[in-house]
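Notes taken during the Thursday session

The instructor put the following on the board and asked us to keep it in front of us for the whole hour. The protein is Dimethylhistidine N-methyltransferase. We were told not to look anything up and to reason only from what is written here. First, the residues (322 in total):
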Amino acid sequence: MSNALERLHDLEPSTEEFRAAVHAGLAQPQKSLPCKFFYDAEGSRLFEQICELPEYYPTRTELALLEAHAGEIARLIGPRARLVEFGSGAGIKIRLLLQALDRPAAYVPVDISREHLLAAAVDLARDFPTLRIAPICADYTQPFALPASAGVHPETTVGFFPGSTIGNFTAPEARGFLARARRLLGPGSAMVVGVDLRKDRNILVPAYDDAAGVTAAFNLNLLVRINRELDGDFALDQFTHEARWNDTLGRIEMHLVSRRDQEVRIGAERFRFREGETIHTENSYKYTLDQFRAMATDAGYRPEAVWTDPKGLFSVHMLRAD
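Then, after some discussion, the predicted structure tokens were revealed:
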């Protein structure tokens, strides 16, 4: 292991936080579960598979944009930058930026899945042996502090939020996240954000309901995790995955649909489901370029540049903190 790989800063949500979120979500008239809890080790593995599916255009489209424009992004960022990646995952996209940047000072990957985070950090340290890497296991939707790395004096700090994950937030939540990121990263910082664009539902729905059933397994794995970690008794074959396009709100919704009237136990609590009742597990909002720029401006950023693919499927935005 490289000496440049620092000890993990572990702020992983506790089992009790998970339990409280599950109980609160299932007690609502429209049952829901926070999508951030998708990402245990198995959920992270399944999401990597989703990213390789033919129906799932966001990953390959964003990768192509980063490959084509990494040099331009690096020039806008400048030398000796510290990169903070929110939801770092497998660390594939950050490599394109790191290779293009002029003497990057440090990399701070932030992810909720500890096992996945550590494996990706070790791999990156092997390929970038002189880069200071300071992994943080945390829920990045909650406040946290950046670690002080000995000997690291960055000229700028840049947030990296790829993969259209900004779309998992409602518009007020997205503005709040961007505003918190601006405060965390500091004056003069920048953000590079991947944003999925509005398009025909015949492209959108299959991206979240693939023919191979990988997204269905990803969605159902949340129930597997509840059974394992919270002493639940969900019968997986009594719930089905469903992806819906909500045109009014401009979002894809993922649901788990109860196949019959049933009762589920989680620890000492019991929750009733009617046949056809759903658990709303994820939103993925789609934006126009102007919609996202306006949101970023409201959050205190100045839109500096944007890159899109020829088909207008996806966008990568460069924002500067005012």
